[in-house]
């Protein structure tokens, strides 16, 4: 709250307090309206006694408000209302320029006394003038000290009224009129209900005004605290954003494949395919330089070592390759050919494998039926694999066709129809197209996959970049609630794991969330 607002609130409170204090008197004290009614009641009773019509006092309503007293004297048999009350109180011009209640009461007292003393008939009667002076003293005591004024009777009043007096000039406010019926019963005046209610509700209104000021101050304090909390949270979010930017720019060792553009991915795949083709091309000539076993290396067989262990140290079961090379389905088992003359630089001795249990397979009706009984014979030395016939080896091992590498066109054409864009948060369950970014930003929480073959649908998931997860977790209610389904974490978490991508459907210029993505926290 600024200084000017505080000053305005303080002045408003003081004004309300002063207005309530000025407009309402304290509890138990008469109001200005009630004090005026008491002064007029004493003056009118004096006029009735002075003119010899005391019976008219019973019609007066002195216990109510000033308006009720005015209604009770409008019968005006003595013209009190038309000649005395109406010129003074009815017009109200005498109160102009007076600010306090006491000054107004003093002005009313003086005007009434002056009006009564101005009567020619009273000026000629000292006793009646003394009665007017007694009325003035009584009214002065009421105005100054609050003493209720009593009935002031005329000192020269006889038992019967003086009919010889000129009624036209007897008193300015009291001309003669028709004789009133003294037996007429007037209703008892009602209590001063308006004064009691005003006295009762005046302090209540003051207390309510004070409570309003206190509640207003408490409201302003709570709003100030909320503003401070909002500023603190805003600063924390800004710090998290700056920390995410610094981590994404300074992490040189980590590399995310999702940041690659489709063109860069296609270039990498082309280079990989080219390297694989070169390796396969180099492997072909190396295998063709050794005529002894042109297909063994291609099929993955290990080459024969230069030195073979002695026959006595070999296992009893012969090597499958040697058995396969010495197998001839059309002839009985015969000793293998003598090994060829070794090269001058290498001196090797042909291994002497043990007799194979498949040597009698030629006499069997089928090449794949097992022998009737194993027949052990004297081990016959066999030559190296190079001594075997090429046809025999090809008949045993069928040629294996290696899968041809995919061409660059087929590899590069696959991701060409898929495009990745990034967005911050959905607005009312919708990703607007003008909010989509080709490259991920520091606050890009979602990754959207667009397929050219399906232009009306797309899939989305949380950005796998870990630097964005802290920002998304911090504002999960704002960033994840509308687009993801996830269990509430039981403790502190740092990463978001995508379990199932969500689906989007294009409607106009925006992508509407059709199915939320499923994630969990770790």
From TrEMBL:
Residues 1-23 form the signal peptide. The keyword Metal-binding does not apply. Residues 157-180, 242-257 have a biased composition (Low complexity). Keywords: Membrane, Signal, Transmembrane, Transmembrane helix. Residues 146-190, 240-262, 325-352, 364-391 are annotated as: Disordered. The chain crosses the membrane at residues 200-219. This is Uncharacterized protein.
């Amino acid at each position: 709250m600024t200084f000017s607002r505080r000053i305005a609130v303080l002045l408003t409170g003081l004004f309300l307090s002063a207005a309530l204090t000025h407009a309402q008197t304290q509890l138990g004290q008469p109001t200005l309206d009630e004090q005026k009614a008491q002064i007029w009641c004493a003056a009118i009773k004096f006029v009735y006694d002075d003119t010899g019509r005391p019976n008219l006092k019973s019609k007066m309503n002195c216990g109510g408000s000033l308006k009720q007293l005015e209604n009770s004297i409008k019968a005006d048999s003595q013209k009190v209302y038309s000649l005395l009350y109406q010129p003074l109180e009815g017009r109200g011009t005498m109160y102009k320029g007076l600010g306090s209640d006491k000054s107004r009461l003093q002005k009313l007292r003086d005007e009434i006394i002056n009006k009564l003393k101005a009567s020619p008939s009273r000026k000629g009667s000292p006793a009646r003038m003394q009665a007017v002076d007694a009325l003035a003293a009584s009214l002065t005591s009421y105005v100054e000290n609050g003493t209720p004024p009593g009935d002031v009777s005329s000192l020269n009043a006889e038992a019967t009224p003086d009919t010889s007096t000129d009624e036209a000039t007897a008193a300015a406010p009291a001309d003669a009129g028709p004789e009133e019926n003294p037996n007429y019963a007037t209703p008892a005046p009602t209590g001063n209900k308006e004064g009691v209610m005003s006295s009762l509700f005046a302090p209540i209104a003051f207390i309510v005004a004070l409570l309003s000021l206190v509640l207003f101050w408490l409201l302003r304090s709570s709003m100030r605290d909320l503003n401070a909390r909002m500023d603190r949270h805003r600063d924390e979010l800004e710090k998290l954003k700056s920390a995410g930017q610094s981590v994404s720019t300074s992490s040189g060792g980590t590399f995310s494949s999702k940041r690659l553009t489709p063109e860069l991915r296609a270039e990498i795949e082309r280079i990989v395919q080219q390297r694989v083709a070169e390796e396969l091309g180099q492997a072909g000539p190396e295998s063709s330089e050794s005529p002894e076993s042109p297909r063994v290396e291609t099929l993955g067989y290990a080459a024969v070592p230069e030195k073979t262990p002695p026959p006595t140290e070999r296992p009893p079961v012969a090597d499958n390759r040697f058995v396969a090379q010495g197998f001839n389905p059309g002839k009985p088992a015969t000793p293998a050919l003598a090994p060829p003359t070794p090269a001058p630089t290498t001196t090797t001795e042909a291994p002497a494998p043990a007799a194979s249990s498949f040597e009698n397979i030629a006499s069997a009706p089928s090449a794949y039926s097992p022998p009737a009984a194993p027949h052990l014979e004297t081990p016959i030395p066999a030559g190296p694999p190079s001594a075997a016939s090429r046809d025999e080896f090809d008949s045993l091992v069928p040629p294996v066709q290696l899968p041809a590498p995919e061409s660059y066109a087929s590899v590069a054409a696959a991701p060409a129809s898929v495009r990745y864009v990034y967005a911050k948060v959905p607005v009312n369950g919708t990703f607007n197209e003008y909010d989509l970014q080709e490259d991920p930003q520091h606050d890009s929480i979602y990754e959207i996959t667009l397929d050219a073959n399906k232009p009306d649908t797309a899939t989305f998931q949380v950005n796998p970049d870990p630097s964005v997860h802290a920002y998304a977790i911090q504002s999960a209610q704002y960033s994840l609630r509308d687009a993801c389904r996830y269990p509430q974490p039981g403790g502190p978490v740092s990463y978001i794991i995508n379990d199932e991508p969500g689906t989007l459907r294009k409607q106009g210029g925006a992508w509407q969330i059709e199915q939320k993505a499923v994630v969990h926290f770790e």
